[in-house]
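Morning!

This is the sequence you dropped in the shared folder:
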Amino acid sequence: MVTAAQTVKIHVQNVRRDMMAPTNRRPKLMPVLGGAAIERRRAKITTEIAALGLPLPGSLVKRRTRCGNTGCRCHGNPPQLHGPYMTWTRRVDNKTVTRTLDTTQADALRPLLDNSRRLRELTTELETLALRQVRDNPTQPDP
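The structure's back. Tokens below.
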């Protein structure tokens, strides 16, 4: 199963690969923007990044589970799983760490996780603008 973070990472890698592929035509993902337009968008992005609250990495997932008791309703037909349980999953030192949260904790973390997601979107857009600027500047090497 692919997580949302993995999906974003794969998408960013594909966008970078597509933007950096040597072609004679301009990619559809990167329309030509003038230097002033790029600078205006960069200023808007940096303002939005400055206005973001604290970012918290990871994802918040609602899970339903089965227990180990064979006679429990979760093993019936149809199964009635236990839960829902809110879990926060993130990577720490290249290992997955999962914590089960109650609803108040999950509600408190949700805006921080949204800030992290938005920060990733904005930094990806900044990278795209930088590639456009390098691509459109004849004194720069081809990206």
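Headline: Residues 17 and 25 are 15 Å apart (CA to CA).

More detail when I'm at my desk.
O.
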